[in-house]
Specification:
The chain has 93 residues and is an alpha/beta fold. It contains 3 helices and 4 strands; from the N terminus they run βαβαββα. It has one domain (2-89): Rossmann fold (3-Layer(aba) Sandwich), CATH 3.40.50.2300. Strands 2-1-3-4 form a 4-stranded parallel β-sheet.
């Protein structure tokens, strides 16, 4: 099962919205996963397969190759397309 982490600055508002959006997207894709939401400081101590965040935080994750950026955090359509493209690229879908 994939482990997905949704990340924002404080781990409360935006990351929770991203978590719910990604949960809906992954359900539509039929991919079983565990999704959590965290702040930028905590996420480095977590194990995960995919990190989902917004472009606003891109500079904080330049060293990672498993990040999916979402522009509109409430768009399930965008999240689905972005996650599907990532999963296909990595051979996970």
């Amino acid at each position: 099962m994939l482990k997905i982490i949704a990340v924002c600055g404080l781990g409360v508002g935006s990351s929770l919205i991203l978590k719910m959006t990604c949960d809906s997207a992954m359900t539509q894709l039929g991919v079983k996963c565990d999704i959590e939401h965290w702040d930028m400081g905590t996420v480095r101590s977590k194990q995960f397969d995919i990190l989902v965040t917004t472009e606003e935080f891109a500079k904080n994750f330049e060293d990672l190759d498993n990040v999916v950026y979402i522009h509109n955090m409430v768009s399930v359509k965008e999240a689905k397309e972005s996650l599907e493209a990532y999963l296909k690229e990595k051979g996970l879908l």
